Automatic annotation (TrEMBL):
Pfam family, any one: MBOAT
GO cellular component labels: endoplasmic reticulum; membrane
Protein's organism: Heracleum sosnowskyi
GO molecular function: acyltransferase activity
This protein's UniProt keywords: Acyltransferase, Membrane, Transferase, Transmembrane, Transmembrane helix
Classification lineage: Eukaryota, Viridiplantae, Streptophyta, Embryophyta, Tracheophyta
Transmembrane segments: 12-34, 54-75, 87-107, 119-138, 159-177, 207-228, 265-286, 365-383, 404-422, 434-452
Protein name, per record: Lysophospholipid acyltransferase 1
Length: 466
């Protein structure tokens, strides 16, 4: 088999390490399916989850990968065992610090950009899992009246056992590319509690059709990526021909480069979605429609049409890398907010900075995520203007809606070039080639929002007078 890998890799245009990863990544689907067929109680299933995760990691990245995974897992569990009152903060600082050190040592962004692969991508997902587990165990000591709904839902009153903890971290190959999920959900799923409790009234949802749908989506996205990648290579940004193009063509190329890169992520997340669905863990309850339909929100990491047709920038985090966005909201954004105060640009910038650090220390990441905060702030200004338009001026309101959509598409795709090329010189060169549109327009909108402020609704005044 090892002798066949180079020819197979050459045939599909990837390196041997990437092909090995892809084969193991796709193997998470049958591995996840067989888990539910394993006889025995929860301890056996935890052991299967841990063992299968270790084996797949070894086959994908080699022995060193499991050593790297062991470090944040040890940090998280040791802090919960010894320092419960500070375990969330300790794990956040040291697990994230170790991830950053690995990013610096391996310079993984360069490998990814050139079509390579290493274990740092999987380590990124694992880091979020151990941090959330420690924070939720920390939250188990708090009074319920001082907690947000997400904290009440996810808090852990009891320390998970070692086998539960390792099973959670490595099950279903979810540490390869996500999605991130909570320890409490993992335990309830394994123990058949909560929404997974067997019931005579409700049949268990079928796993096969949504799994096939996710696989079909993955095939389409991979096909589109392989078609586009040679037509819109990142190397074109440093090609003299690119500089000779007009502004419209350069903006169009940046959009298509972003779309090409997104297709690769759509493929990866569709495979992981199929893996989580076929395991049963992706089930998140029933809709209220008649008849009720099963929901698979826990497995879903991207809404492709939601990203590509987002009406405003505020919708993008809700449709792109959904579970990581949820993690950032619960464990960074909301925890920076003080009671009684509204979120501002600082909270967005702080959250996006954590996101950038989590991805790596390349300048392109920081520049892109800072622009993401500006993008959302500018989109909110347009939305507030929409809300201040009276009903009789419906046409003008629709114009603003179209403006918000066009603004989101333009700025997002021009800004995301930094995420793709990574280096400071290439990022600034690409931004300069389109006259820093991704920087200037959001800042201009934020400043205009300070001048053109929406008036307060009449109803609100009336209620106040009463």
């Amino acid at each position: 088999m090892e002798l066949e890998l180079p020819s197979m890799a050459s045939a599909i245009g990837v390196s041997v390490p990437v092909l090995r990863f892809l084969l193991c990544f796709i193997a998470t689907i049958p591995v996840s399916y067989f888990r539910q067929l394993i006889p025995g109680g929860p301890p056996v299933k935890h052991l299967y989850a841990a063992t299968s995760g270790i084996i797949l990691s070894y086959l994908s990245f080699g022995f060193s990968s499991n050593i790297h995974f062991l470090v944040p897992m040890f940090i998280g569990y040791a802090s919960m065992l010894l320092f419960r009152r500070q375990c969330g903060l300790i794990t956040f600082v040291f697990a994230l610090g170790y991830l950053i050190a690995c990013h610096v040592y391996y310079m993984s962004g360069d490998a990814w950009k050139e079509g390579g692969i290493d274990a740092t991508g999987a380590l990124m997902v694992l880091t979020l899992k151990v941090i959330s587990c420690a924070i939720n165990y920390n939250d188990g000591m708090l009074k319920e009246e001082n907690m947000r709904e997400a904290q009440k839902k996810n808090r852990l009153l009891k320390l998970p056992s070692i086998v539960e903890y390792v099973g959670y971290c490595l099950c279903c190959g979810s540490h390869f590319a996500g999605p991130v999920f909570e320890m409490k959900d993992y335990l309830e799923w394994t123990e058949r509690r909560g929404i997974w409790t067997p019931s005579e009234k409700e049949k268990s949802p079928s796993l096969y059709w949504p799994t096939l749908r996710a696989l079909f989506q993955a095939v389409l996205c991979m096909g589109l990526y392989m078609y586009l990648v040679s037509k819109f290579p990142l190397s074109r940004f440093t090609d003299p021909v690119y500089q000779e193009w007009g502004l419209v063509k350069r903006v169009g190329f940046q959009y298509m480069s972003g779309l090409t890169a997104r297709c690769k992520y759509y493929f990866i997340w569709s495979i992981s979605e199929a893996s989580i669905i076929i395991s049963g863990l992706g089930f998140s309850g029933w809709t209220e429609s008649s008849p009720p339909k099963p929901r698979w929100d826990r497995a879903k990491n991207v809404d492709i049409l939601g990203v590509e047709l987002a009406k405003s920038a505020v919708e993008v985090p809700l449709t792109w890398n959904i579970q990581v966005s949820t993690w950032l909201r619960h464990y960074v954004y909301e925890r920076l907010l003080q009671k009684g105060k509204k979120p501002g640009l600082f909270h967005l910038l702080a959250t996006q900075t954590v996101t950038a650090v989590w991805h790596g220390l390349y300048p392109g990441y920081f520049i892109f995520f800072i622009h993401s905060a500006l993008l959302i702030a500018g989109s909110r200004v347009i939305y507030r203007w929409q809300q201040m338009v009276p009903p009789k001026m419906a046409v003008f309101k629709k114009i603003l809606m179209v403006m918000n959509f066009a603004y989101t598409v333009l700025i997002l795709n021009c800004a995301c070039v930094g995420f793709l090329v990574l280096t400071l010189s290439e990022t600034l060169s690409a931004y300069r080639s389109v006259y820093f549109l991704a920087t200037a327009i959001p800042i201009l909108l934020v400043l205009l929002g300070k001048i053109i402020k929406p008036t307060k609704p009449t109803r609100a005044k009336a209620r106040k007078d009463e």
